Amino acid sequence: MQxxxxxxxxxxxxxxxxxxxxxxxxxxxxLFVVCDLVDVPMAEVLxxxxxxxxxxxxxxxxxxxxxLIRTADAMGADxxxxxxxxxxxxxxxxxxxxxxxxxxxxxxxxxxxxxVLAALRDAGVAICATAGDAELSLPDAGDVLAGxxxxxxxxxxxxxxxxxxxxxxxxxSIPIHGRAESLNLAAAAAICLYASADATRAVDYxxx
Length: 208
Fold this sequence. Notes:
Shape: elongated
CATH class of the largest domain: Alpha Beta
CATH topology of the largest domain: Alpha/beta knot
CATH superfamily of the largest domain: SPOUT methyltransferase, trefoil knot domain
């Protein structure tokens, strides 16, 4: 608290009862902060020639949203755009699940999915989505992923609607070599974002 106060931050002590009212968990740290919202306009995310974006579509689970933001941050994504009727990134569980990444990567919200897709195309970003009946397998998609890419990730329960899948520039499958029928959202997102980050890095730092 002393370092915060020294930095010009107003610090106040509150009662245990007030802390219990403010806390969203059974055992809290006892520290509460009033700050500005972290999300930015979608145009700001797209104005800096992004190379890699994560675009969850109508994602409703705050834990999954937070994990996706954290994964996007780890993979060096330039931003996360929450499209459609999605969870609030300021939700307490979402913020905790990001493990701090909510403050590292730019996050935008846009209710109109069609506007998100149109803006991505106008920015020269290829729209990719995972699908079982895909044109490409992820290991063979290096040339696509080496350019500016936005990955669409669907709702936890229903995935991406067919009409949204149809608007993707590339539908890409993740090979499954074992007997699992599918991957959960967080695992699939991590694999896709890692593949894009790896392809981009190969362009930036080619082997001599």
